[in-house]
Write a structure and sequence with these properties.
By secondary structure, the protein is mainly alpha-helical. Among the domains are: 49 residues; 95 residues, His-Me finger endonucleases (His-Me finger endonuclease fold, 3-Layer(aba) Sandwich). It is 42% helix and 4% strand. Strands 1-2 form a two-stranded antiparallel ribbon. A hairpin with a 6-residue loop joins strand 1 and strand 2. Helix 1 packs across helix 2. The chain is elongated, with a radius of gyration of 30 Å. The chain starts with 51 loop residues before the first helix and ends with a helix.
């Protein structure tokens, strides 16, 4: 039977995960994937490349795996250094960033708003929203064309397919999610304000006729 050797203490008969001694990070895990030295990462390495065979021996990894790491490092150099995911500043990583958790959350919220206001963010949000109703862009065009490109309630002509005020809004049943038609923004919000209750809509129409007469 093959005896496993612990990578933490070097003794056989158990694995690193069950070792009773304090876990120590092997030096090979702290080495740069470019030059093999310690103290920095491959993304920030400015030293000469170490031959793959020697680097594989230092890292304790197969040559094929080290070759993949080297390719990833070269790709990183071509696209430039990565920015910190916590604050967006170059020169450090999120692990060593000095921002607090609250500042990181606030920055993430700002990035989310910026993304949702971008063209790509709006397009992605629209695709996800239509997918919830079992529709796609072609199905929306067919629905709008069946209504002569007009709102089903007030008859307003849709000026654009993606506009907030004058573009088509998909009206659906909030319980079954069944699509009922395409409305303009004000009419769609109006139905929501009346809680999709026909009686409220009729009462509102009679009220307006009464006060205008």
């Amino acid at each position: 039977m093959v005896q496993h050797r612990c990578s933490n203490c070097g003794e056989s008969g158990h694995k690193r995960i069950s070792c009773v001694l304090p876990l120590v990070t092997p030096v090979r895990y702290n080495r740069c994937n470019n030059c093999g030295e310690t103290g920095h990462r491959a993304d920030n390495c400015t030293n000469t490349k170490l031959p793959i065979e020697q680097l594989a021996e230092l890292l304790g990894r197969p040559v094929s795996q080290v070759r993949v790491l080297r390719v990833q490092k070269d790709a990183t150099v071509k696209r430039g250094p990565r920015a910190c995911r916590a604050c967006g500043v170059l020169g450090h990583t999120a692990r060593t960033c000095g921002r607090t958790a609250l500042e990181t959350k606030q920055l993430a919220a700002v990035r989310q708003v910026k993304y949702m206001n971008s063209e790509k963010g709006r397009a992605t949000h629209r695709v996800k929203r239509l997918r919830k109703y079992g529709l796609d862009e072609q199905a929306v065009r067919t629905l709008v064309a069946s209504q002569d490109n007009k709102c089903a309630i007030c008859g307003t002509v849709f000026e654009a397919e993606s506009g907030y005020q004058h573009g088509p809004h998909i009206d659906h049943d909030h319980v079954t999610l069944v699509v009922r038609g395409a409305l303009c923004g004000p009419c769609n919000r109006g139905l929501g304000s009346f809680r999709d209750n026909p009686t409220y809509c009729i009462n509102a129409a009679e009220y307006l006729r009464k006060v205008r007469s």
